[in-house]
Please model this.
Amino acid sequence: MPTMPTVPLAEVAYPVSRSIPVLPGESYRTFGVKWWGAGAYERQTIDGSQTSAKTLNIIRHEDLVINKIWVRHGSVAIAGSEVDGCAASNEFPTFALDTERVSPRWLHWYTKVTRFWHDCARLSQGTSGKNRIRPDRFLSIAIPLPPLAEQQRIVARIDALAARIEEAKGLRAQAVGEVEAITRITARRLVAQVTERPSRLENWLDSERQGIQTGPFGAQLGSGDFVDAGTPLITIGNVQYSGLGLNSLRHVTQQKADELARYDVQEGDILFARMGTVGRCCVVPASAAGWLYNYHLIRVVLDKSKVIPRYVHWSIQSSEDIEAYLGESIRGATRQGVNQEIVAGLPVRIPSMDEQQRIVAYLDELQAIADTVKRLQTETQVELDALLPAVLDRAFRGEL
Model:
């Protein structure tokens, strides 16, 4: 296939300035340009007194706009209708297009191509962190430019393929949502069917270990105590409904771990979020035994001869009694979260060990299916994310 003809941007784009004065008491919609070809967006509406700029420049639908500093990171976009009429400082040079020669949609897709970002970075100059590009240098970048009719044909193909990719992403996300919803609904139904009367969670704690304990306070553990490697410290972000997440684990030195030894966790302990998403909890797996936890979490140690930790975990996440109890507790004296006393009072319905085991086995099987769907969705997402760049690469080489 013959090479697609190229021209400098200057042949189809020219600087345009729609300058307006900035006056205190007047409102101005401002915009920004995301990195890596992700588009222009409306930021916020400001009063004229909130900026030191004497003038701002108006952007119009289908303008080509850049951020002079971050253009080296792909901060280039074709303005959509949602930012029409927004304004920005001179750090955002704006260019009108010769639409008889170039389709705005053609350039929209080209702003998402890696080699275009590389050209922008190559022409940016200045000290580290201040690599601005001059508008004239930006306009010297060569772009592929077939006849307008061919641009429109290729754009139509890109649009159609991009829509199918987004549809596939949506269907996979929907599948994850549906299987998680089934798990939650089933858990609530099974827990609701337990006929035993509610009793306080503190009645089911391990008497040999401190049954309920909040993590170390700031004086015992501060941000300066974290290191790159050492004993893992579990934070609220690691506690997920489906289990203990291992992303973004923090660590402390062995010396600090020894100082905080009373705040370690063992297999079967429950970690309960006392702030933020109150009530989110997980059961500690064997692989995390000996790890520490922080102040945003409460550790619950159960008497495993009487109760299965996974059953209590499912109860906390699914029981209408507990949901109502926590709702009232959070609206009370501890508005920012809950404390040990409130967690000790959680109303749990504990059936026989056989019945607990039956419920846990059923729900854990459902959760395993949900986890498999999520894993497959993540793997598929990576593949789908790679599709559009591949499509664009072929398109701008004239192979689409």
